[in-house]
Amino acid sequence: MTEGIRSEDRGPDLIAPPPLLYAGPLLAGFVVDLLLPLPRLSSALRLVGLPFLAAGVALAIWFLLSMRRAGTPVDPREATTALVQAGPFRYTRNPGYVAFTLIYLGVSLLVGARWPLILLPAVLVIVDRGVIRREERYLEERFGSDYIGYQRRVRRWL
Hints:
By secondary structure, this protein is mainly alpha-helical. The chain is 63% helix and 0% strand. The protein has one domain (42-153). The chain has helices spanning 18-35, 43-47, 49-70, 95-111, 115-143, 145-153.
């Protein structure tokens, strides 16, 4: 007989894995762009995507290194073992999601597709409500006053 997974052995109950919440709408936006094309963004605006993409990749690497140094899982569905407040976590409580957003924005701009950009606000609402707020409740239960103090000092996004 298999034992069930105890609540302390797993992370918060998220609506979906965060990378999927970004990749799915991004790819869907590209498909919609093929089926119902809108005018492409200007070349100058498309080039703006490069710094967004570079910043997103750099932030993602910094986020991953900080999580690894703290010895806690990167996957938010796994049980958190440490409240990370160093590295990019000094500036945002959600550097991984900020990185995903910058990468999404950068790729969308570089390709010049408007549909993924149109979908981005909905992605941010879904991530905020279906992931971040659930993570916050979980972290408050797990770390109590330490997490509440961290929330007071550091913004959710930027």
